[in-house]
Design a protein that fits this description.
about 140 residues, alpha+beta, 4 helices
């Protein structure tokens, strides 16, 4: 079992307070985040961006693995995962969707890349983790 962790420290009230996020690896330490960076459109860190980064990275790696299993070596896989948070949901803010947009450059038939892209969408560990609807767009070329 591989275990990774990140931590958060929050000080103060929801709207006036603030916190920091730290990754076990040291990739980021004490990254500040606030109510305004999450809900107010202000620049800065927020949990949804971190989930999006994790999802995009996981998906791209899983797609590369699936392609490798078919003897296809991608030149590039560029993926964005947009995480949609509905702040007005009854019971509290809720992540409603994760939308993948990926662009694949590889010497392989487009239909095969699209087939593997769909398998990666369903099979990547972060996709499995998310209980939101996961949608995707694929661009080949």
């Amino acid at each position: 079992m591989i275990e990774k962790h990140a931590s958060a420290i929050w000080k103060g009230s929801l709207k006036e307070g603030g916190g920091t996020l730290t990754a076990q690896s040291g990739a980021f330490r004490e990254l500040p985040y606030t109510h305004a960076t999450r809900f107010g459109g202000k620049p800065g860190a927020n949990p949804e961006e971190l989930i999006g980064a994790a999802h995009a990275g996981c998906y791209s790696m899983f797609l590369a693995a699936l392609m490798g299993g078919e003897g296809i070596t991608p030149e590039t896989i560029e993926t964005t995962s947009t995480i949609a948070l509905d702040p007005g949901t009854e019971g509290g803010p809720t992540v409603k969707t994760a939308h993948l947009v990926t662009r694949v450059k590889a010497a392989a038939p487009e239909a095969k890349i699209r087939e593997l892209a769909e398998k990666a969408k369903a099979g990547c560990p972060i996709s499995k983790l998310l209980r939101a609807e996961i949608t995707m767009e694929v661009t080949v070329g």
